[in-house]
Design a protein that fits this description.
The complex is a heterodimer.
Chain A: E1 5-12, H1 23-38, E2 47-51, H2 62-69, E3 77-80, H3 86-99, E4 105-113, H4 119-127, H5 142-157, H6 161-175, H7 189-193, E5 197-199, E6 202-203, E7 212-221, H8 222-228, E8 233-242, H9 257-270, E9 279-281, H10 287-296, H11 305-310, H12 327-331, H13 338-351, E10 364-371, E11 376-383
Parallel strand pairs in A: 2-3, 2-4, 9-10
Antiparallel strand pairs in A: 1-7, 1-8, 4-7, 5-6, 8-11, 10-11
Helix pairs in contact in A: 3-13, 6-10
Chain B: H1 19-25, E1 30-34, E2 40-41, E3 56-60, E4 65-73, E5 86-93, E6 96-102, E7 116-123, E8 129-135
Antiparallel strand pairs in B: 1-2, 1-3, 4-5, 4-7, 5-6, 7-8
The complex binds zinc ion.
Chain lengths: 384, 136
């Protein structure tokens, strides 16, 4: 197992509906927490990766502004974007910068202030997230394209709207325990099943909550990590893959191939298999996305993912606890910050610092972070 | 005819496969076919990424598509507010997949994954050109 690059500091802002501050101040919240956690200051940092989906930012080229505010001049900085998986792509780039020997300490800062532009502007930009020549002209939306995956999964495997609701109930249970989550209210099965249909079969509570938020990770080389960190968490495996932007370019809609390919790379690099994972964070932007993740990551055979949720195996105490911080569904999904927040949760789990949501004795954790509707897939395996 | 004649809302006007809308205007839904390696492409493309040829011809998409999946959309993006609800669908025409909408007059309860559909060209209320799926 690789032992070259460690995460030595983690931080996250609260995820909220409307952050009452600027993006620089939002970024600072996660940054200051991560830097204090790592026990370092700005002079110790060699470079910063600033991860966000720029269509939501009023500021052009925000990496320049954020690096200045965080005191990270004259070190190099640049923007990294793969929509909702931007900050795990940031981890991948930071890993290679460190492994190459170019840098020793790299900051991966993810942020999004979804409320910075109006809801109408945001809808307009989201419509253009699909292929603008061939699919946007029909009125596509993220929920609609995930809904088509849900319908295809139902048709092939017999999964149901109730199975999806069970995933939402798990998110609600753990979201209530997470002080940094945007949605902390409880939910019951009837509320989920009777909610407004957004794009059939997905209903309101099958969709994650938009939020403003930031996340920050400090990555370091092995030598540096051993020198300054008492609790490094090591990057054991990294996988990254893509699939067509167009739905018409997909072989099937009952799973995400980018996740399957990325997972295989990460397991191979780590020399581990799905059975070795003690705790996982998966990209549940919609309930169906978590169900597909169970199968695409190998936690269940294709079509058997529903058994994991029906039998409570993805709760703490089950075979493979998943999204025990509330997931995107309850914690919220500030696009550029999401992958960093998922990674922070796993780092805290592996350090034994996860509090109420601690999975006892967790040694190996996995992060699954997806950009767009299965367009970009990153899988990261972490270990103590 | 400019490519921005295509679709309920258009976002771009210039492409080398602009002849697509001229075929729509004639009542035909067409894909492109690479004359070098024999692959058929939908969405139509001007260039083949497999053999790096740009030697394409237009071929008709025949009837007898199978519905891969669908969703009834109740909340549309900007520009589609007055259009909802509508049903988006992906149809497999013998290995060539086409994304579009199912005719509004077909009730959702009568739509099933795997059903046979055909594509028909349409002129929309705003005079734009498009195609639509109907049960075969
Ligand atoms: Zn060719």
């Amino acid at each position: 197992m690789p032992n070259d690059v460690a995460i030595i500091g983690v931080g996250q802002s609260a995820f909220v509906r409307n952050y009452e501050g600027s993006i620089r101040e939002l970024a600072f919240e996660a940054y200051s927490e991560a830097m204090k956690d790592a026990g370092i200051t700005n002079n110790d940092v060699d470079a910063s990766m600033i991860c966000s989906a720029p269509e939501y930012d009023q500021q052009r080229s925000p990496s320049s502004l954020i690096a200045e505010y965080l005191g990270l001049n004259p070190q190099p900085t640049f923007a990294i974007e793969t929509v909702c998986s931007s900050s795990t792509t940031g981890i991948r780039v930071a890993y290679s910068l460190i492994k190459s020997g170019l840098h020793d300490v790299v900051v991966v800062l993810g942020f999004q202030k979804m409320s910075e532009i109006s809801s109408a502007d945001s809808q307009e930009r989201m419509g253009r997230g699909a292929d603008i020549m061939w699919e946007s002209p029909f009125g596509t939306m993220m929920p609609a394209n995930y809904a088509m995956h849900a319908r295809a999964h139902f048709a092939r495997y017999g999964s149901t709207e109730k199975d999806l609701a069970l995933i939402r109930l798990k998110a609600a249970k753990y979201g209530a325990l997470n002080e940094k989550a945007v949605y902390r209210k409880g939910l019951d099965l009837d509320q989920c099943l009777n909610a407004d249909v957004v794009a059939s079969p997905l209903k309101r509570f099958d969709c994650c909550a938009n939020a403003d938020g930031s996340s920050c990770l400090i990555l370091a080389s092995a030598d540096k990590a051993k020198e300054i960190s008492k609790k490094p968490v090591w990057i054991r495996g990294l996988g990254s893959a893509t699939a067509s932007l167009t739905m018409s370019g997909r072989d099937a809609l009952d799973g995400l191939n980018c996740a399957r390919v990325a997972a295989k790379q990460a397991y191979d690099m780590a020399g581990l298999s799905p059975q070795d994972i003690d705790v996982a964070e998966v990209h549940d932007c919609f309930t169906i996305a978590e169900l597909m993740a169970y199968e695409n990551l190998g936690f269940a055979e294709p079509g058997k993912g529903v058994e994991l949720i029906q039998n409570g195996e993805t709760y703490i105490g089950g075979k493979i606890p998943v999204n025990v911080d509330g997931g995107l569904l309850s914690k919220g999904h500030p696009i550029g910050a999401t992958g960093g927040s998922q990674t922070r949760t796993i780092v805290l789990q592996l350090r034994g610092e996860a509090g109420d949501i601690q999975v006892p004795g967790a040694e190996i954790g996995l992060v699954h972070n997806i950009g767009g509707v299965g367009v970009y897939g990153n899988v990261i395996i972490l270990g103590r | 005819m400019s490519f921005d004649k295509f679709g309920q809302v258009s976002f771009t006007s210039q492409t080398k496969v602009g002849a697509f809308v001229e075929y729509l205007d004639k009542g035909e839904l067409r894909a492109t076919y690479c004359q070098e390696c024999g692959r058929t492409f939908f969405p139509p493309r001007a260039d083949c990424s497999w053999c790096l040829s740009s030697n394409m011809e237009w071929v008709k998409i025949e009837d007898g598509g199978k519905l891969v999946s669908f969703t009834k959309v109740n909340y549309g993006p900007t520009g589609f507010e007055s259009d909802v609800p509508y049903v988006l669908a992906l149809v497999d025409f013998n290995g060539v997949k086409v994304f579009g909408r199912i005719n509004k007059e077909v009730p959702e309860e009568q739509i099933t994954v795997g059903m046979t559909v055909k594509a028909e060209t349409v002129t929309l209320a705003n005079e734009q050109l498009s195609y639509i799926f109907n049960p075969a």
